[in-house]
Amino acid sequence: MRRFFKVEALAKLQKILGSGKIKTQPEELFVYGYDATAGLKNQMPLAVVFPESTEEVVEIVKWANEYKIPLYPRGSGTNLSGGTVPTAKGVVVELNRLNKILEIDLDNLTATVEPGVIINDLNEAVKPYGLIYPPDPGTVTTATMGGSVAECSGGLRGLKYGVTKHYIMGVEAVIGTGELLKFGGKTVKNVTGYDLPALMVGSEGTLGIITKIIVKLIPAPVAKKSFLAVFNSIDDAGNAIAEIIKNRVIPATLEIMDQTTIRTVEKFKNIGLPVDAQAILLVETDGYPEQVEMEAKIIRQVLEKNRGEVSEAKNDEEREKLWEARRAALPALAQVSPTTVLEDATVPRSQVPAMLKRLKEISEKYNLTIGTFGHAGDGNLHPTILTDETNREEWQRVEKAVEEIFKAALELGGTLSGEHGIGMAKNRFLLWEMGEAGVNLLKRLKLAFDPNNILNPGKMA
Amino acid sequence: MRRFFKVEALAKLQKILGSGKIKTQPEELFVYGYDATAGLKNQMPLAVVFPESTEEVVEIVKWANEYKIPLYPRGSGTNLSGGTVPTAKGVVVELNRLNKILEIDLDNLTATVEPGVIINDLNEAVKPYGLIYPPDPGTVTTATMGGSVAECSGGLRGLKYGVTKHYIMGVEAVIGTGELLKFGGKTVKNVTGYDLPALMVGSEGTLGIITKIIVKLIPAPVAKKSFLAVFNSIDDAGNAIAEIIKNRVIPATLEIMDQTTIRTVEKFKNIGLPVDAQAILLVETDGYPEQVEMEAKIIRQVLEKNRGEVSEAKNDEEREKLWEARRAALPALAQVSPTTVLEDATVPRSQVPAMLKRLKEISEKYNLTIGTFGHAGDGNLHPTILTDETNREEWQRVEKAVEEIFKAALELGGTLSGEHGIGMAKNRFLLWEMGEAGVNLLKRLKLAFDPNNILNPGKMA
């Protein structure tokens, strides 16, 4: 980019936004070349802008079209596929100042929020009314609603409650042309036009910059029961998972941790986990008391039948302790080595035992430490490779192992990504799953929204 | 179309398909100029084809691209927005021979079906396993899965269980280019590429011809309670609806019938409905026995507080009788006059009382008989105009009334269509809801899938 052009463009942007809404100094820009993803080539942006209104977002996108300068929308930057990392000289659009909960509508059980609202803040706001917004990615206390819609965040409750896409009823967005559009609304049913709210969810900032979101809320469950089951065989754990669902019990959460993860968490937290176990399962059922009783009975039976050693949380404090272990999984694994490669290749839940076996083989083949934990109930495992990206020889083995993990997931009828997104971390593998015709369709679709390829270029397809 | 060209094109098509899979005689084609929609200009197709494999569908779409002849995908033709009616000389693709249930997967709680499977046949097939496929449009015993995915069918259980889009995990389709693509799959979580399964649901046959569908199944509820409540004021009924939800009870069904509908059903069926009532509500809660008890108590309290006279179905036979009245609504109304215009303008549920008021005003203003019934719990009302399309003067009033119904729904924060689709019945109103930029986006999106505008042209946008 020629220097004069850049100076002129940024001066114009400065003029559009007024003071205090743009940063251009290298030391201010540095962090915006990163997000939570490991091992990516990063690129510092030209500037970061902080719009404070929808109108400013519109002006920014029009400006970008005029100068053909790419925009990179960003929330809290917690995503794990490089979704917010610039790929060329452009401007990061940081949406955290658009952070109002605009409405909680108790008649329609909806909330309307701006993109910068933190997911957990929405849940705190609706709690007094006995309501919840179920999607709960691990980053629920830091991630924004806008980012979580753009990435279609998953989390621990996907099995019973679904993921972000199941709760988004309406989206207002500035598409790549600079046009402000509203998709969907507060009606439960809506078949007017294509399902554009659904298309925006998981679009990774490539179709539009989200400026408003209408979400569905649901009544909070009134009762809960939580179990920890210890297994000496990974097959037993896998069979227990499949059998619970086969008994038509859909737990709220059904999580697994393998031996590597258990040992690392125990070293890190020292909370008395069974370090010789091959796997532990954490299972929680929620709903009405009687239903929870019935489901809990079946869950316990299945776990014990599959040789699980079962303990039940007797109160909220004990339940908290169980989840503390689960929540510690990623931070604990991340402490072991300089670089943590957290994957989310996902399989149909019946293939979880087969996938666990493949992960073990891959870890042995490439002589790598892979800790696996995750949402076993929905087939969304998180194999986590503990490595050091500055060790070139090992990093090459990591890259090969990652490729093999994806191939295994696809062979088992799964998908490249269950909840982390494609971004720039997985777009080179997209052909394997979608084929050339599929990838070309994604590209044409992108251009229908964003003909000048302004929004988050180089991501997804 | 020049005669020679037509003869050549059809001869080629005949050759591709072999014998017994194509009809070209006018008396065979006549019915394919219609579907269940009233008051449309119809157009007889050049031919109807009956593919018996996915490969044949691919060949048909390639043939259509070669000759630039439009295709009109069709299931049972039960849709109410002209979605299956030809708009120009083209070929109807009747998918009812692709009618196999390919798999019921009890481990993953999914079923894989071909598009010609009747919705109810799927439900009968999964019933022995204690599972259900919840979407239940009124046409459940005749409509096909393919048609119901293409139109995103709604139905009586939308409030609690959602609609078709909430159950479609994967779709295989031949897009307008003739390419066979697979979107989604059996994993609960999938963020690979844009959410193309969601985009296919409700795309009204304009993006692709669906050849395979993977649906989510859920455990059948084990208990039910059903109530009939009689109201002397439409406001009381409306307030009761809002208050049930506000009490965080989400009934499985929450249906309304107004006085016109009640009287017509009673005349038709003679089952003892209260003909002097202003409205009746039918409410059913389902789930685990204890939950059903708790919810039933709240429902009864709210209904009585709002001056509803409540009776409860004591057994399945009595429940059947309640639903018989509801199911008779449309057939009864349809018997009264030569033409029945069934609308589905939809509002946020809190606006149901306001919408009912507006419907009454519109019926008086245009001196028309409008019976209203429908899914009050999800704001999806069915104002039904009883008329005669051969009476030109009255038909003009009907058209004005319909426009005003749409305007009212939009003013109340609603949408043009909750579950019937846009098709060719409502596309001239699309601008009101989506604006010019929105409609242009729909058109660009369509072209990304179907650059030659082969698939169901003239529908939706």
UniProtKB/TrEMBL annotation, chains A, B:
Which terms in the Gene Ontology molecular function aspect does this entry carry? FAD binding; oxidoreductase activity
UniProt keyword annotations, A-Z: FAD, Flavoprotein, Oxidoreductase
Report domain FAD-binding PCMH-type positions: 41-220
Question: Flavoprotein as a keyword?
Answer: yes
Q: Which PROSITE patterns match?
A: FAD_PCMH
| Pfam families xref list | FAD-oxidase_C, FAD_binding_4
CC cofactor: FAD
Query: Family per UniProt?
Result: Belongs to the FAD-binding oxidoreductase/transferase type 4 family.
Stated name of the protein: Putative glycolate oxidase, GlcD subunit
- Give the species this sequence originates from: Carboxydothermus hydrogenoformans (strain ATCC BAA-161 / DSM 6008 / Z-2901)
